[in-house]
Amino acid sequence: MAESSAIMDQMLAITNAIDSFIWGAPLLVSLILVGVFLTFILKFIQVSKLKLALKLVFTSNREDPSHKGEITSFAALCTALASTIGTGNIVGVATAVHMGGPGALFWMFVAAFFGMATKYAECLLAVKYREVDAKGRYCGGPMYYIKNGLNCKPLATLFAMLTIGAGCFGIGTYCQVNSMVEANTIMFGLSPIASCVLITVAVGLVTLGGLRSISIISSKLIPIMALFYIVGCFAVIISNITNLPNAIAIIIKSAFSFEAGVGGATGIGILVAMRFGVARGMFSNEAGLGSAPIAAATAKTKYAAEQGLVNMTGTFFDTIIICMLTGICIVITGAHNLDLNGAALTTSAFTTAMGASWGVYVVNIGLLLFAFTTIIGWNYYAESALVYLVGSRFIYLYRVVYIAIVASAAFMTLEIVWILADILNGLMALPNLIALVLLRKDIVEETKLYFNYLLTKPKNASLIEEGEDFEEDIFKGKSIKEEVKESK
Q1: 353 partner at 20 to 30 Å CA-CA among 53, 127, 142, 253?
Q2: Which of 22-26, 162-166, 481-485 has the lowest mean pLDDT?
Q3: Which CATH superfamily is domain 15-454 in?
């Protein structure tokens, strides 16, 4: 027993070292810089076009025969949100606050703000470079725009292999199932084995149905579960509304403090807060990771930039709304001062404001729903990566194997699970970020093409003003109106 414990400790030390190296300054700076770069070349599209993006989200659930794809734009967004709105919104935020202090929330917000431009760009490229397989299914994502846009098959293959690893053994299974088992134990007193049986059956029923089944469940479940959790967060905040100004002040002050959470003892507080804020933020919204583009590529849309705008709202909903609400609840109730971590920290914040029964149920029901949708979302991502590598002949075998992995996921150590997920996420980001920078001209050209479309369609007159400021200041050469005139 002592020997196995020593081996586990050694494995933990090794994975921690690898995680610290991967999530060091180079990757954190790269994530932010790519987001800043895309923000500037797209003239702060996450601000100037947020209204248009939100409008598209709520009008993109209609079928259009002229649009090519498998599922509606809204369904594609919900499929992407299924994977992003997960345990990171509850457990990940709490871990960021515990390790990096309240200031981690500030850096999480900053990363998400610039991450919206990143998410727009990667989902745009996914539609531009998607392919149709022999069975008429639309396939896309970083592996396709790396292969077709950069003509670099080795890098595309690397990304696909990392996606399979993350989906089957990291963010897509172990983290989520572990959190679901814990939630079931807290609420219903279920044993890990009983939880595993229930989770496996539920995942199996959805997974075996493929993309259609996943998108239908996601489209129905995502809006309901997000609204449920947001209402709970507002209940906590309203009950502590007098503490809100002080909570915001603590978050901002801690972001630039030399002492930050538990991690402050291991380095300069600002860097620790930044590291955990950016890392957990990315774990939650996956901007720059390259996962959401896989779902975006299946959308029925005529313009790549339009789907980019739709999916850009995923980061807004996931991090700027849900993660920030979770973080504010933790700080506004003073729970951040407790020696708690993960779901226990978030639960403490909710029970302080809502009472033991209600607080526990709001957090853990949210956790169950969030984790379940993440499992089915990442199943599709890993499946798509496998199809890219070896074709579709092993799809059903893969789905059975994935279900078996889910069944065994509850028996992994939580700390190692999170570290492995962090490592795989960081490695996935590298080839994707390289592609986004090298394909920047495609991003600009597709954006220009879409706003050309808005200006030339009378029925889009109400949206023309949304495109006018893209006319000359971002795109060099001829203005949009000149090109429209020539095309006529």
Answers
A1: 253
A2: 481-485
A3: Amino acid/polyamine transporter I (1.20.1740.10)
